[in-house]
What does this fold into?
Amino acid sequence: MIKPFSIDLSVNVGGLKLRNPVMPASGTFAEGLDKVIDFNRLGAFVTKTVTRELRAGNPLPRVVERPGSLINAIGIPSKGVPHFIEKIIPQYAAYEPPLVVSISAPTAEGFASLAAELSLPGVSAIEANISCPNIEEDGKAFAMRAESAEKVTHQLRAATKLPLWVKLTPNTGDIAEVARAAEGAGADAVVVANTFLSMAIDLKTFKPCLGNIMGGLSGPAIKPIVVRQVFQCAKAVKIPIVGCGGISSAEDAIEYMLAGATAVQIGTATFLQPAAMVGIIDGLEMFCLQREITSVTDLVHGVVIEEADDQDLAWLSPPT
Amino acid sequence: MSLDRSSVTMQPAATPPASSRTPWKPSIAAEVAKVAANTAVNAEYRHLVVDCSEVAASAQPGQFFQLLCPHPAGEHPFLRRPMSLYGADPVKRQVEFLYKVTGAGTRGLDSIEVGGTLDIMGPLGQGFTLDPKWRHIVAIGRGAGLATLAPLAKAAKANGTKVTAIFSARRPELLVSVDLFKGHGADVVPVTDAEQTSGPGNVERILRGLIAEGKCDAFFTCGSSRLMRVQQRLAIEFGLPGQVAMEQQMACGIGLCYCCVRDFNVGGEIVNRRVCWDGPVFDLLEALP
It folds into this structure.
């Protein structure tokens, strides 16, 4: 006899319950996408990063494509906090998914005051984009080092009661240590990761392809590296991980979840297929149905690591 | 003199945001279309016709599509390529494009055979608007800009508006859209580099003649900064409205990424706008070259 089978796609990301684990990556989502997809299908909304200072953005060109990837240096154009509160937050009031607000600031103090000011009705969680340069540390991103990540997370934690997601940079030697520092300072979840610092040069002109010279690499090319980082972070922390990097299909999302992600963010894929997120949600459900997985949370950290005997690992040992 | 959106607009009415109260329907299609024709029209340009959905075929003059071009041998275009609408037929459910093979994306388009498929996304952006009061408009374009202006010919005829088209190209045989405009009853004035008639001085002389004859209620332009500046000057001098379709490198094409911004002069203040979302058609007097 065939039993009725229903799939529970809901997940809990650091105190925020989502109907499914799929949401946009900050900076790749805006209200216009509702002409292509039904917003009520998404797990959550994530806004473009808002800053207190008015930012015009970087000089053009702001993007350049490479095989399987995109390099961007948009420069976080921002119209400031009053515009964000009056114009952006209300745009999402009519929809069911929760609103995650991405914030950035050049100092830990700045992050905290922005989180406090934006902890408003209509905002369900704060995503702190600590991949940006810290002016108190010679422009190094907060998330490049555990100490600075801990300091900014600590101040953010004191400033808001909302679920606090901390978005880490992949441009660091030991991302698991940074994730552990964020967890210790009170983060409810970590987003792993962001774009990779990169560069492209035009062979006709010998000039950099981007107005900002350097930019952030995204797209399918980075996926295996970030899957590895999610796996490393999942072993280091107990808080949920939101995987982000090169996901363009349900299979990619499942791989991230198996590595340890509770939810996923979709960015560059939306530029190629505007309905990518909806396709990924449908694909996740289909996968669970086929594999008779009743709850998508059963996939989280489901990667099977078999105990290897010493001989298998011998090649890893330094030559003697 | 801002672009009057209250005039008869060729845009479909803005879709209300999807909410739990109203059933959601897409107003921009992302779909795999079937290629009905892909043929050379001259030494540079090719004409692509695809069978598509009702939503895609509802495209209006001045709007554009984002095409996911197939990969030509040895090349890997990653992003979609923006392409101006050349024609749309809601009855036959077709859209048309005119393209010049210049890079990896268009080399990929060139390789598609009739019966093959193409992933299209659109219609995108804000198109041209036609005021029903306008009796006679002037369309001025150069190069690929002629393709962008092409759908105006049919729309102007439907609006009861006469068109004079001043079309510029390097050589006479590279002019496109001429027969299309003539077929809809437009006067076409070709100007070319080869015949030394395409300079801004000569185009200004032609325009002053049209204005004097009462044949220029509005300017529509695309494809040349030099010709745009001539029209801006005349628009100010004679108090005439105008619209310009602008280009910029794009990534998402739907207002998400802010890669295609340009500066505009809005009442003396410089503002940043997204070409894909706020345009590609802008008020002539606000545009900066």
